[in-house]
Each structure stands twice: as structure tokens, then as C-alpha cells.
UniProtKB/TrEMBL annotation:
Protein name (database record): DNA-binding transcriptional MerR regulator
Domain HTH merR-type residues, every copy: 4-73
Pfam family, one: MerR_1
GO MF annotation terms: DNA binding; DNA-binding transcription factor activity
Alphabetized UniProt keyword annotations: DNA-binding
InterPro entries assigned: DNA-bd_dom_put_sf, MerR-type_HTH_dom, MerR_fam
Record bears the keyword Transcription: no
Length: 128
């Protein structure tokens, strides 16, 4: 009998749906998962780690086509190390640009919070 996590258990562990895990496999983002004698998927700890990496890449805005390309490069072995490095360097630059945008957004929110806080205090004092 094959040990490991069911699709439902794996989905819960990584915060995705079982449907999404199956889709990841169908799209080539995940290598075909080992199956038990009844044909049910059984995820191992390495599969869970890989899924968590894919989730981080997706969360940071990496398009699925690049994630698929990355998965293909990993499967190709060490001959793709430079390409993987380049992919991550380019993605890192996009993440840093997004962080800078978010920092500007946060600065604007902080300004509005400050202005409205002062206005609310002034309004309360005028009412007294």
C-alpha cells in the first residue's frame, strides 16, 4: 500500500482545493502523483514542498506559463540551472517593483488616516 496524503489532505495542508491540485497536475506544474492500488492520488512530503513553492510563486504574481516553464526546467536537471536562475532573477525584479508600488499605496493610506484622524479630533473638540 502506498503511504502519503490523500488529495483532500494535501489540499488542506497547502490551502488549495482538491480540484486545483488535480488541475496543477493536469497542467504539468506537478509531476504525476503516485497512486495507491485503488488509483487514488497519494502525495508525499516532497510533493507538498513543491506545491508550497508553486503557491508562493503564484502569490508573488508569477504567471502559470512561467511556473510551467520552471517545472519543465527542474525536470530537465542541472543543465537548466542558469535558466532557472535567470527566471527567478527576472521574477524578483517584478516582485520588488510591486513592493515599491504597494509601499506608495501604503504611504497614501497613512496620509489619509492621519488627515481623517486630525479632522475627527477637531470635530470632537468643536462639539464639546
Amino acid at each position: 500500500m502506498v503511504k502519503g496524503y490523500t488529495v483532500g489532505e494535501a489540499a488542506e495542508m497547502v490551502g488549495l482545493t482538491a480540484h486545483t491540485l488535480r488541475w496543477y497536475e493536469q497542467e504539468g506544474l506537478v509531476e504525476p502523483v503516485e497512486r495507491d492500488s485503488a488509483g487514488r492520488r497519494r502525495y508525499c512530503d516532497d510533493d507538498i514542498g513543491w506545491l508550497r513553492l508553486l503557491i508562493r510563486l503564484r502569490t508573488t504574481g508569477m504567471p502559470v506559463r512561467e511556473m510551467r516553464r520552471y517545472a519543465e526546467m527542474v525536470r530537465a536537471g542541472d543543465s537548466s540551472l542558469n535558466d532557472r536562475l535567470q527566471l527567478f532573477l527576472e521574477h524578483r525584479e517584478r516582485v520588488l517593483a510591486r513592493i515599491a508600488e504597494l509601499q506608495q499605496d501604503l504611504t497614501m493610506l497613512d496620509l489619509k488616516i492621519s488627515v481623517y484622524g486630525e479632522m475627527a479630533r477637531a470635530h470632537q473638540q468643536a462639539a464639546v
